Amino acid sequence: MKHNLLNFKTLATIFLTIGFMSSCSNDDNAIDPETEITPETGAESRWITIAGARMGDNPGDGNGGTLIYSVRSEDAKDPNTSINVFDNGFLAPSNRTARLQSSEDGTTIFNISYAGDTGGNYTKYNVEGGQVFTEIGSQISIAPYVGTAPRWIKLYDGDKTGAAVYVSTENEFDENEKYTRTNATIGVVTLDLENSLINEFQEHSVALSPEEEALGYFISRIDMPVLNEAGDKLYIGARLSKLDPATTESDSDYEILGSKTIVLDYPSLLNPSVITSTVGYGNTNGYRSINAFLYNGSVYQANQSDPQGSHILKIDADNQYDDSYVFNLDDALGIEGAYILAWKPAANGKAVIAYRHDGSQEGVAGAQGFFALADLNTKTATKIDAIPYDADFYLFQYQGFVVDGTDIYITQAPVGQNGNIYVVDTTTGEVTKGAELVNAEGSHFIGTF
């Protein structure tokens, strides 16, 4: 029988008031919210925070607000647990879908509000179970540096630093009013997550090659900063767009160039340069989820809108693309038009990838999504068949994966339908069906944190 998880403070009040609690679950297996040990096994437990995006005007748009709810890892793995994020969750401050990050141990949630009057406001919360997220520290706004709709990421430096970015563009002309290039000005700010302070802010004009710029190519969007292993370079993913030099009108039918990344000195954020892959083509800025990760001394980065299907690209310690590393998802999965929506590796180099492809059905909110288990070392991937798929399983806005040792926690639920948490053992490939996720009309789940 299923048991519903309520806010732990409410449970404590019930215990004190009536002295007992009736439940369909076995009380001997109950988890004390103050401990991090699973009674049955003695293994360490951690918080798993589930995030749901409520419908705004249309199913799957996620514009009605982001709600979060946390449970212990053993409850997340328990199919008898039922979690109702949309009725019982904590509303994360944000005008649209919140851009959430979590500490590596799951005890803290970081949020920067996206758009609206509070856009750019940074807050952080202690995770205390259920819908209880207690704000800690002071708030700070990064809007003066990167606007009210910032693209930001927590750097993997022990939960110390966040980085947010923006880009603005302006066409340039010669004295005869002939188009010469589009100037892309990037802004980058780093944020002290512990003390709510601005560490550094820099703006730069970032150029492509003269040949590329003469054809009308320019950097139109940037996102997903990541540190190299030495901690002295910051890589920023980039999307290229193109206009027609003769008319300066947007050009939608053009040759896709090699994937590019902006490289800055860190922590100074100075000396910008651009590196280019000859293996992958298309964009490296990702969307809502972290798009590049440090593994075994190198940074592995997904690309999107690649005419040959998404690749995992590799940037080595020399801060250049390793073009001898070829990992193409089309080839690995035997599909066409693979598009990596979100992904995350465990420490063993095994990763879970959320993706769509040319064969995806069109659902109520967009193209159907799937999950694959990939291996960065062998450059192989297999679709995770143990997870049920539906035409309305929409993963374009997917944000978060929890990595706990070799386990990766994911959410599965079609738009507006109930689903479950699934836990993938990346070592064995075994998949465990966990807690039920109770959905709401037109809403969807955007991951675990």
3D structure, described in words:
The protein is mostly beta strands and 449 residues long. It has a domain at 139-287. 7% of the residues lie in helices and 43% in strands. The chain contains 6 helices and 30 strands. It has helices at 8-18, 73-76, 85-88, 143-146, 210-214, 329-333, and strands spanning 3-4, 47-53, 66-72, 81-83, 90-92, 99-102, 108-112, 121-127, 133-141, 151-154, 161-173, 179-192, 197-205, 217-227, 233-242, 258-265, 273-281, 292-295, 298-302, 311-315, 327-328, 339-345, 350-356, 370-375, 380-383, 402-404, 407-412, 419-425, 431-437, 444-448. The strands form 7 sheets. Strands 1-4-29-28-27-26 form a 6-stranded mixed β-sheet, with no helix packed on it. The longest helix has 11 residues, at 8-18. It is globular, with a radius of gyration of 22 Å. The protein starts with a strand and ends with a strand. Residues 7-35 and 37-42 have low confidence and may be disordered. This is DUF4374 domain-containing protein.
What is the strand and helix layout of this fold?
Blueprint: E1 3-4, H1 8-18, E2 47-53, E3 66-72, H2 73-76, E4 81-83, H3 85-88, E5 90-92, E6 99-102, E7 108-112, E8 121-127, E9 133-141, H4 143-146, E10 151-154, E11 161-173, E12 179-192, E13 197-205, H5 210-214, E14 217-227, E15 233-242, E16 258-265, E17 273-281, E18 292-295, E19 298-302, E20 311-315, E21 327-328, H6 329-333, E22 339-345, E23 350-356, E24 370-375, E25 380-383, E26 402-404, E27 407-412, E28 419-425, E29 431-437, E30 444-448
Parallel strand pairs: 1-4, 4-29
Antiparallel strand pairs: 2-3, 2-30, 3-5, 6-7, 7-8, 8-9, 10-11, 11-12, 12-13, 14-15, 15-16, 16-17, 18-19, 19-20, 20-21, 22-23, 23-24, 24-25, 26-27, 27-28, 28-29
